[in-house]
Amino acid sequence: MPAYLIANIQVTDAEAFERYRAAVPPVIAAFGGRYLVRGGAVHALEGAMDLARLVILEFPSLQAARDFYDSAAYRPLLDLRLASTRSEAVLVEGHAPPA
């Protein structure tokens, strides 16, 4: 069953965040992940969600998403992202339609 890493990111250091953006795609791919949403315009429809830069990554499973986030390969990039942004992130299990 697929799983998603969803992050809301407010960039506070554009130069450092650009280094993160350049380095992270191959690490995501190494864990079977892919971008579904990478920034772009956000249009609120209901409520007052405080969304800045929304990122949604899809992984083949919740375990693959967790393995990515906890990996030694991602750790220095995570540190860079945390130092260059204010962000919230969650892992969410996806939906597998009945066969």
What does this entry look like structurally?
With 99 residues, the protein is an alpha+beta fold. The chain has one domain (3-93): Alpha-Beta Plaits (2-Layer Sandwich), CATH 3.30.70.100. It contains three helices and four strands; from the N terminus they run E-H-E-E-H-H-E. A four-stranded antiparallel sheet has the order 2-3-1-4.
Quick take:
The chain is an alpha+beta fold and 99 residues long. It is built from three helices and four strands, in the order βαββααβ.
Q: Please tally the helical runs, counting DSSP H or I stretches of 4 or more residues.
A: 3
The largest sheet is: 4 strands, antiparallel
Classify the helix fraction into a percent range.
Answer: 25-40%
Taken as a percent bin, the fraction of beta residues is 25-35%
How many domains, as an integer?
Answer: 1
The oligomeric state of the chains shown is single chain
Q: Identify low-pLDDT runs.
A: none
What is the averaged pLDDT score? 95
Order of helices and strands: EHEEHHE
Gyration radius over CA: 14 Å
How many angstroms does the end-to-end distance come to? Answer: 12 Å
CATH class division: Alpha Beta
Number of strands: 4
